[in-house]
């Protein structure tokens, strides 16, 4: 049985958007926070990884949101490293409110990267043992988000340059900024009138310090689902996602 790890967290005002709820990019930052804290407690944290010339990367997130926590609300952040094989790891996150309700669930797929060669490497066995995961031969990458096709009409598009502060210590754009780019491209009125219920995002290629990217989105007629992609200047795909929405 995978080892669970919990922390209590009081939502800060700077973690929220104009709705006084935790912003979607910050949800991912909080998830990474609790996973890092578990790894540090198991003596396999960032120092352990970086001393070996490696870094964790996220390949995919599947997110299910009942509601987002409000400013000053106290929630429990829970994580468990559910499955490992030689190259990949499944990690789950749950946000639990004061009534014990699971308000957010995140399923994620991670891998380790050689920081110099920028290629995937085997996960050391000594890193796996402390999490007490199920060790399996094959880990499914999960369902891919539906891609934007040539038949789709691009309703939203905006270009972004990578800023110095977008780069984390794995020397690429922090994953939370992809959410910034995807959500920022949408209309403010739409965002104020809708809430995300589910999101499936897959990271195909890392964005670096010198890159310029274009965020594109299409929306269905009912305004209940949007498809997104982040493209490099040469048209190559960095990330794509599908977001399902509901009226507030």
TrEMBL record:
Pfam families: Acyl-ACP_TE, Acyl-ACP_TE_C. Keywords: Fatty acid biosynthesis, Fatty acid metabolism, Hydrolase, Lipid biosynthesis, Lipid metabolism, Transit peptide. CDD domains: 4HBT. Residues 3-131 form the Acyl-ACP thioesterase N-terminal hotdog domain. Residues 156-246 form the Acyl-ACP thioesterase-like C-terminal domain. The keyword Hydrolase applies. The keyword Transit peptide applies. One of its GO terms (molecular function) is fatty acyl-[ACP] hydrolase activity. Gene3D superfamilies: Hotdog Thioesterase (3.10.129.10). It comes from the Bacteria. PANTHER family: OLEOYL-ACYL CARRIER PROTEIN THIOESTERASE 1, CHLOROPLASTIC (PTHR31727). Belongs to the acyl-ACP thioesterase family. This is Putative oleoyl-[acyl-carrier protein] thioesterase (Putative). The lineage of its organism: Bacteria, Bacillati, Bacillota, Bacilli, Lactobacillales.
């Amino acid at each position: 049985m995978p080892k669970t790890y919990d922390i209590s967290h009081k939502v800060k005002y700077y973690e929220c958007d104009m709705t006084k709820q935790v912003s979607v990019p910050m949800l991912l930052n909080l998830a990474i926070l609790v996973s890092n804290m578990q790894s540090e407690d198991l003596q396999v944290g960032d120092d352990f990884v970086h001393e070996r010339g490696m870094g964790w990367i996220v390949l995919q997130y599947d997110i299910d949101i009942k509601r987002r926590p409000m400013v000053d609300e106290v929630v429990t952040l829970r994580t468990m490293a559910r499955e490992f094989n030689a190259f990949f790891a499944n990690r789950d996150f749950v946000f639990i409110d004061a009534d014990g309700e699971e308000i957010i669930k995140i399923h994620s797929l991670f891998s380790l990267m050689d920081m110099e060669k920028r290629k995937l490497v085997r996960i050391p066995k000594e890193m796996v043992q402390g999490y007490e995961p199920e060790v399996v031969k094959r880990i499914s990458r999960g369902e891919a988000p539906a891609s934007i096709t040539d038949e789709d009409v691009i309703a939203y598009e905006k270009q972004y340059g990578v800023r110095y502060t977008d780069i984390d210590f794995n020397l690429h754009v922090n994953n939370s900024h992809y959410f910034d780019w995807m959500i920022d491209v949408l209309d403010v009125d739409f965002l104020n009138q809708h809430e995300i219920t589910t999101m499936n995002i897959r990271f195909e290629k890392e964005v670096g310090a010198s890159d310029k990217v274009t965020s594109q989105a299409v929306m269905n007629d009912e305004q209940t689902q949007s498809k997104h992609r982040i493209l490099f200047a040469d048209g190559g795909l960095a990330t794509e996602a599908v977001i399902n929405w509901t009226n507030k």
